[in-house]
Amino acid sequence: MSFFVGLVVGIVVGLALIVVFVRSENARSKLRTDLAATVAAFARMTVEDSRHLLAPEYYPSWVVFSQRQKVCVCIAQLNWLNSHLTKIWPYVNEAASELIKSSVEPTLEQYRPIILSSLKFSKFTLGTVAPQFTGVSILESDSSGITMELEMNWDGNPNIVLDVKTRLGVSLPVQVKDIGFTGVFRLIFRPLVEELPCFGAVCYSLRQKKKFDFKLKVIGGDITSIPGLSGALEDTIHNAIEDSITWPVRKIVPILPGDYSDLELKPSGTLEVKLVQAKGLTNKDFIGKSDPYAELYIRPLRDRTKTSKIISNDLNPIWNEHYEFVVEDASTQHLYVKIYDDEGLQASELLGCAQVQLSELEPGKVKDVWLKLVKDLDVQRDTKYRGEVHLELLYCPYGMENSFTNPFAKKVEMTTLERVLKSSGNGIADAAQTEREVSQKKREVIVRGVLSVTVISAEDLPVVDLMGKADPFVVLTMKKSDTKNKTRVVNENLNPEWNQTFDFVVEDALHDMLIAEVYDHDTFRKEYIGRCILTLTRVILEGEYRECFPLDGAKSGRLNLSLKWVPQPIYRDSQ
User: Fold this and answer.
1) CA geometry: angle at 339 spanning 245 and 397, to 5°?
2) Is-above-0.70 flag for pTM?
3) What is the pLDDT of residues 397-420, one digit of tens each?
4) Cα 470 to Cα 156: distance, rounded to the nearest angstrom
5) Where is the SMP-LTD domain (predicted)?
6) DSSP class of residue 45?
7) Which of 39, 281, 370, 567 is the most exposed, fewest CB within 10 Å of its CB?
């Protein structure tokens, strides 16, 4: 009897164990399946999915979701990299010194100041102190290549001596010492290939120059013995580095045989600039006022730097000059403007400088900007007022729209703005006839038409009379033709209304401007209150607009104007 009881109990227990084991295996199998599905889901997860899962405050400090996905390289790894660089630095120094010398010397010669007849290296070594890498990041890239950025800090002890020869026959050995540099280098590995080292070429460039300090010393003499030499050499070195290696300029090192012309720097568009005016410039002259002129450039090459005419004895100069620049990378490049005081035979003195990021410009749209001048673009906190400069900017990428296509033959040279206006004008001859005419004579567009100006009103004019009022009137002047019109006088009113319209026949609108000056009428004289200066670019492109303009030179006050343009395009022959 006990045998049968034990047999039954054993069978029951065995069956129970089998059931438990099967259920356990099924549960484990389900867990493995769910885990595999979870891992696959994480593998497919994008940055946007991560943002939806967790708020940014839950991520570690080194995780940054931006346009660039930064790679956290721990301190130990950077120390390892820097320690090995220090070990091999004597060999790197020997190889790199000769390479840098041979590549930089032609660039220095290209930027050589006019006062020098020769500028070469007599000694060049990078010294015994190796640079230190302080950060690494990988930019988002496609399957065709990888872009890496390395942040580097170098306080070196190089032995760099320049052999400087002036046009007076004086030869000076100038030592470059106490170099301190911090910057970010960009490395592009492209294209990716299937054979080692898995990329065809490397492009390198200085993406960002955070700090670059150095001192110049004449060996056995004083560099200040030749006026202007120190400043000229410093500008030459900065400009040479700025244009020879700073992004978007890049150096290409082929690793595997192939055609890498697609990696070279290529123009991407044009920037049309109108230098209108400046105001409130600093007076640097002891007698009279400064004689300002402007230099404008995107890259500081001599043949790409534009220089305005000199306006003598004026702290509020009006230039109204057109320039056109080639743009290679609108996302990173800037337009630089520097205002100088002309000193005749002596070196010009910088009054102030400013810059515009081309990425802020909307392609095909004119942007009117006033830029505050600073002493140095690298100095962030410059609170002193040094004046302002007025620009009109138009960026046109290549192949943007048909409206920017030159309707003439390729031999005809017109600015981008002239092409826009010419394409949108009426009464243009057909293409065949135009081509035949162009083959005979080179022609360029003159934007001619009638400008109607309505002086509507003024607001909040400053008190001029002793009785606490003013008797204002407005004088309108076309600068190029000096044609003038004036409104009636409104007595004893700081918010006068005129609603008077005046027509001006403008022969060359792209190079003319309207000056509206507000005066206070007195019995024996008129007293100047303020003015506003308008180019005709906007009214030509828009046809008609109305706006309230602040009065320059006045403590307060605004002038309401309405402008309308009726085009009458004509052509002129040029040699």
Assistant:
1) 50
2) no
3) 887 654 443 322 333 344 555 555
4) 66
5) 74-256
6) -
7) 39
